[in-house]
Amino acid sequence: MSGGSYDYLFTRVHALDDQRTMLENMAVRLEGLPYAAEVAEQTRRVLRLVDVANALADSLTDVWRAVEWWDSGDSGEPAVIRECEAYRAPALVAPEGDLRAPDPDMLYRMVDVGGGVYELRPVAGGEGQDDG
User: For 54-64, what is each residue's pLDDT tens digit?
Assistant: First the structure.
């Protein structure tokens, strides 16, 4: 069997780019409505987050390809191990600080900040961790 276990996910890392023009048009339309400033800004935020997601996905393609080829019988676990060891998460900062790479030593929680928007926030002082 050759590839395809994940429908060649590693080749589709920029799938949302196809929506960029429509998102831009929607943002412009919303900006023209006197009552839609907040949703227009959130639409612009989606565009910025697409850029961040693309950068993160780009950094993962070698790992995704190795897993897909392993699961399809084209390679083995050593390739996955090699790519995971070689992986380095990019420091991601979108315009206006929308998203940063999480600290791997920190515990995080998804927080609803309203309007259907969620943010990843650090848990203060080990809150929510099991002590034993």
Answer: 888 888 999 99
Residue 118 phi/psi, 5-degree rounding, is -120, 145
Q: How far apart are CA 34 and CA 37, in angstroms?
A: 7
Strand, helix or coil for residue 131: coil
Q: Which of 117, 115, 79, 74 is nearest to 98 (CA)?
A: 117
With tokens 């979108």, the residue in question is 94
What residues form DSSP beta bridges with 117?
114
Q: Considering only CA atoms, which of 132, 6, 128 is closest in space to residue 69?
A: 6
CB-based burial of residue 65 (10 Å sphere; 0-12 exposed, 13-18 middle, 19+ buried)?
buried
E strand or H helix at 46:
helix 37-71
pTM check: above 0.85 = no
pLDDT digits (tens, 9 = 90+) for 87-132: 887 766 544 554 555 555 667 666 666 666 666 666 765 544 444 4
What does residue 112 show for φ and ψ, rounded to 5 degrees? -75, 115
